[in-house]
Amino acid sequence: MENWRKWIAETQMTAMLALAVAVSFGDPYAVSFGLWAIIIGGGFIGVVHLNPTVTLCNYAKKKYLRTLTNENRVEFKGNLIFQIVGALCGGLIGTIIATGNHFHFKIGNDSTIAEAIVAEAIFTCQLNLVIMISQEIEFPLIGSLAVSMTVLVGALTVGPISGGCFNPTVCLSLNSVKAIYYDDINYMHDIWIYVIGPLIGSAMAIVLGCVYLGEKNFKATIYERNSMSSGIPMLSDYKSKDFPE
């Protein structure tokens, strides 16, 4: 039952993310602040991924720590399935609202395929690093804001180059729905870029996450707050209750 509650949330919130991208024409501010609200809204039911690269990073993290259970495997497989379902629902609703004139992902006119893949990989990597670190700190409001700001910076920075997707299921949804609506396969032409780039980025995030946090910090999921020198919580301002000094 617990998995089903999470999967319903995963479906509904991935749909909202895809809808926000579709109808706002990929506006960085609408998408990033919408994502912040979506993450906060899903916090009561557990961690929502909304993105297959996030699910893969969480799977690898548990695998690395040898804490992966059969229940986790079932949950993660379900997440991947319901992310696709949710994104397709969001894309369909966006098509209805915008009468087919919704946003779809494509590389910039002056950009090359290599540039687009590198752009997607770099910011997908950074996005997943922020998520992996924020999961270890008991500040969900700040963690979710950091995630949404990463998306905002990525969209503003490389949006003109790659479209600023960082999420394969959202691209798959919006581009495929538009291809069906207009009966034009050309909308699917660049879709593989938004699979390869984010997958490379998630692999980079897994490696860098292990290096930056280390096994000790990775395993520490409960933190207590020490004295802070500034108002911005840093990882160094916390210490693990699981690992005595």
UniProtKB/TrEMBL annotation:
One example GO MF annotation: water channel activity
Gene Ontology biological process terms in this record: one-carbon compound transport
Pfam family, any one: MIP
Main location: membrane
Signal sequence region: none
UniProt keywords, alphabetically: Membrane, Repeat, Transmembrane, Transmembrane helix, Transport
Membrane topology field: Multi-pass membrane protein
Cellular component terms per the entry's GO annotation: cytoplasm; endomembrane system; membrane
Gene3D superfamilies to which the protein is assigned, alphabetical: Glycerol uptake facilitator protein
Compartments where found: Endomembrane system
Parts of the chain that traverse the membrane: 36-59, 80-100, 112-132, 139-158, 191-213
Family: Belongs to the MIP/aquaporin (TC 1.A.8) family.
Protein name: Aquaporin
